[in-house]
Design brief:
32% of the residues lie in helices and 16% in strands. It is of the alpha/beta class. The protein has a single domain, classed as Spore Coat Polysaccharide Biosynthesis Protein SpsA, Chain A (Alpha-Beta Complex). Strands 3-2-1-4-6-5-7-8 form an eight-stranded mixed beta sheet, with helices on both faces. The radius of gyration is 18 Å and the shape is globular.
């Protein structure tokens, strides 16, 4: 039996976190033989994100140091699973596919499975500038690292814990996503990429295309100077026909803010020193 941790970073997502958590098919995953924990990393929210996540069955830790990568570092240091799945708290990623994606991940004996949002992208899911920014960064990543991922910025992954413990990921911000993919591939782990339907986010957009894109490009250039081990690499591009599912429309869960609980969300244990920027 495997232990699966679903790790979700969240910052001021009280309007989205109930629907996001409701979309995770925990019962189906358990029926398939997995022990499942859902861990929400509250990245210093000022709203009811943490209390709502607790009320909807998630374990919550608080990472007060802001940043997408910092939230994930705290989550990976505190989750229990030998296999980790990720996604955002804003209803953009299809958590419903986890049982089928996990079965495919195991059948292909993969170590790291990423997702590709860009192949069949709905126009309302991304702004035009965001689309071009993603294509530009993915192209630059392929040119600098010969990296075969078609979407270097996607935030939905399934991977084995040793991918994280054997990787040197320094970024505390949005560049964390591309850096983890580069490390997984260059370190010789068996990688794959699966097309998904990316959805319009709920609520206020937090990504700043120009600022975050410039920081990601700078990180790519800095990462290029690191020595890469001369290991055999493996990449599997998975077609949409490999998953026997049709994507349902995401459920909309009515938000009811619970009264403050007496128990506070736990503070995270410090991340491994070699992985902290």
């Amino acid at each position: 039996m495997i232990m699966l941790s679903v790790v979700i970073p969240a910052y001021n997502e009280q309007d989205n976190i109930p629907s996001t958590l409701a979309s995770i098919p925990v019962d189906e995953l358990r029926a398939a033989g997995a022990t499942v924990e859902v861990l929400v990393v509250d990245n210093g929210s000022t709203d009811a994100t943490a209390r709502l996540a607790c009320a909807h069955g998630a374990r919550v830790i608080v990472q007060p140091v802001r940043g997408y990568g910092n939230a994930y570092k705290a989550g990976f240091a505190n989750c229990l699973g030998d296999i980790i799945a990720t996604g955002d708290a804003d209803r953009t990623y299809p958590f419903e596919i986890l049982p089928q994606a996990l079965a495919l991940f195991q059948a292909e004996r993969l170590d790291f499975l990423s997702t590709n949002r860009l192949g069949a992208l709905r126009p309302e899911a991304m702004t035009r500038s965001h689309v071009w920014g993603n294509w530009a960064l993915s192209t630059l990543t392929r040119l600098l690292f010969n990296l075969p991922f078609r979407d270097s910025q996607s935030g939905m992954w399934i991977f084995r814990r040793q991918v994280w413990t054997q990787s040197r990921v320094l970024s505390g911000g949005m560049a964390f996503s591309q850096e983890l993919k580069i490390e997984a591939f260059r370190n010789g782990f068996r990688c794959g990429e699966l097309p998904i339907e990316y959805r319009p986010r709920g609520g206020e957009k937090k990504l700043r295309t120009v600022r975050d894109g410039a920081r990601n490009a700078t990180q790519l250039l800095a990462h290029r100077t690191r020595p890469a081990p001369p290991l055999h690499t493996h990449m599997l591009h998975i077609g949409p026909d490999r998953l026997a599912w049709r994507m349902p429309a995401p459920a909309r869960v009515q938000v009811q803010v619970p009264a403050p609980a007496t128990a506070e969300p736990s503070r995270p244990q410090p991340a491994r020193a070699e992985n902290v920027a």
